[in-house]
Amino acid sequence: MTRDLGNGYELSHDRNRLDRAAVHAYLTTSYWALGRSRERQDDLIDSSHVVGLYHEGAQVGFARAVDCDAAHFVYLADVYVLEEHRGSGLGVELVREIVENGPYADRTWVLHTRDAAGLYERFGFRHHERLMQRG
Predict the structure, then answer these.
(1) What is the spatial distance between Cα 44 and Cα 37, in angstroms, rounded to a whole number?
(2) pLDDT cut 90: percent of the chain above it
(3) Annotated domain spans of the chain
(4) What is the pTM for the complete model shown?
């Protein structure tokens, strides 16, 4: 599925369209995936539902959803929009596409973030005091 956002931007669920090198290049500079190998990143893409954000055909954003138990729980990961494309609602549309328009729209979603909480709150994400993490 592809959705036209106007001004040369579009969203796509087609994993074959992803510029995996561009996704890896960005993510390995992020605080959450620093040092992740390309092989590991490709494995994560292959085992997840993905949405790419494109401007005039070039990869400018990405999001990944992991089906954790095939019944109820989905993890949102690796969401980004390149800095030069931020500020016009593209991140909102990227998250909307994967969370509300993707195959897991009716599931419970979780994520880890230390920034952009306001973006995720628009889609019903809330801080939860009972979450624990190992690693």
Answers:
(1) 11
(2) 80
(3) 2-121
(4) 0.92
Q: Which tokens go with 16? A: 């074959």
C-alpha separations of 24 from 29, 34, 41, 111, 125 in Å: 9, 10, 7, 19, 26
Reduced to 3 DSSP states, what percent helix, strand and coil does the chain have, rounded to the nearest 5? 30, 30, 45
Could you report the per-residue pLDDT of 106-117, keeping only the tens digit for each?
Answer: 999 999 888 888
Least Cα distance to 112 among 91, 135, 87 occurs for 135
Planar angle of CA 116, 119, 125, nearest 5 degrees? 100
Q: For the domain 2-121, what is the CATH code?
A: 3.40.630.30
